[in-house]
Amino acid sequence: MMSQSAFRFFRGTCHLFYEDLCKVTDLPNSPLTWICGDLHLENYGSYKGDNRLVYFDLNDFDEAVLAPAVWEICRMATSIFVGFDSLRIEPSEARDAAAYFLKVYSETLSKGKSKYIEPETAKGIVKTFLDNVAERKQKELLRQRTIEKNGKLSFAIDNAHFYKLDKDVKKELLNFLDEWLKTNRNYKNGFKILDTAFRIAGTGSIGVKRYAFLVEKMQNPSKYMLVDMKEATLSSVQPYLSISQPTWAAEADRVVAIQQRMQNVSPAFLSSVTYKNDSYILKELQPLADKIDFVVIKDKLKDIQRVIEDMAMLTASAQLRSSGRQGSAIADELIAFGQNQEWQKRIIDYAVSYSAQVKKDYDEFAKAYNEKYFS
Q1: How far apart are CA 117 and CA 56, in angstroms?
Q2: Do the beta carbons of residue 47 and residue 17 sit within 8 Å?
Q3: Contact between residue 4 and residue 196 where contact means Cβ atoms under 8 Å apart
Q4: What would the mean pLDDT of 355-375 be, rounded to a whole number?
Q5: Which of 60, 259, 309, 359 has the largest CB neighbor count within 10 A?
Q6: Residue 276 dihedral angles phi and psi, to the nearest 5°
Q7: What's the rounded Cα separation, in Å, for the pair 361 and 15?
Q8: Which H/E stretch holds residue 265?
Q9: Within 10 Å of residue 328's Cβ, how many Cβ atoms?
């Protein structure tokens, strides 16, 4: 919930950030790039790619658009100051972390070569994290989220992770995904849909329609996958951009296309689908815990530095990987931007200033929330 901390508030109010950022007249010039749009400390995480290997990368593209590169890194730098303050980490350490992020980001751009992280190439706490994820069996997640009754597996309706659907709606959803699988040559005859349930969307997506499906692999009985289907809405960044965007057939097409460009390998099932005239993103459901827990490492500066380094490298790599596509700058422009480091101080100054604004906005929100204003 946004009322928990200033960082949670920051996460859930992406639109406020860009509403203010678009009015700033002295931001450094930067190349146009594809951005995830809502970059912050918790929008990096692990997932299984469609090749079944585990990766650590940017993992939320609901707000993705074509925008100046500095828009992405301004939000990330601000998240460092807001997030560290919420963890009660000293401001000087936050400044050092933000400066290090920009340094590694620039160095990665200047080399012009995208990189990626998987268990074999990871180091430090990210390696430990990915090793643990890779070893975790799918059945552990299934055990937490499903129940078996009369020899049949179904979702555990706990009104926390999953909610019961109306009987007719459930039937429609099951038929919809079954038909989609049958007509998709990549998945045809490979899966059987067992159950579906309603899911609550994340911090910044409350009110968005979202469903989960329990799927059995036909070629390997007793092996299952959880599939997520989330409604795609207009990017909260786009209203504040004067930059022309590609024409997408649907919002889910935008999200899926940009995610596939920016990630080294994307999750299984990643697709754009239309259900009852609404646009949805379909992909394998990833466990919510697959993010770096800064609460655990807040007193370990070496671990924090390593994570920040990885996040910076991944951000620059995603921009390089998606360069030269539908209006984004070519790699040569990104390389030149990375080689010029004069703009970095301005980004940090803005992040420091705006993090104070976030805290002020959060205090007003929390006061109103505690006074039952939103009730």
Answers
A1: 6
A2: no
A3: no
A4: 91
A5: 259
A6: 55, 45
A7: 13
A8: none
A9: 22
